[in-house]
Amino acid sequence: MDDLTVPICRALISVSDKTGLMDLVKALADKKVEILSTGGTAKAIREAGFTVTDVSDFTGFPEILDGRVKTLVPQIHGGLLGRRDLPNHQEQMKAHNILPIDLLCVNLYPFEETVASGAGEEDVIENIDIGGPALIRAASKNHSHVAVLTDPAQYSDFIEVFSQKGGSTLTQRKKWAQAAYARTAAYDAAISAWFAQEAKNNFPERFTLSGKQKQILRYGENPHQQAAFYTTSENRPGIATAKQLQGKELSYNNLNDADAAFEAVAEFEEPTVVIVKHANPCGVASASNLSDAWDLALRCDPVSAFGGIIAVNRLLDGAMASKIVDIFSEVVIAPQISEEALAILSKKKNLRLLTTGAMPDPLAQGFVVRTLAGGFLVQNRDNGRPEQFKVVTKRQPTEQEKQDMVFAFRVGKHVKSNAIVYVKNQATVGIGAGQMSRVDSARIAAHKSLEAAQAIGQTEPLTKGSVVASDAFFPFADGLQAAIAAGATAVIQPGGSIRDDEVIAAADEAGIAMVFTGMRHFRH
Question: What is the pTM of this model?
Answer without folding.
Answer: 0.85
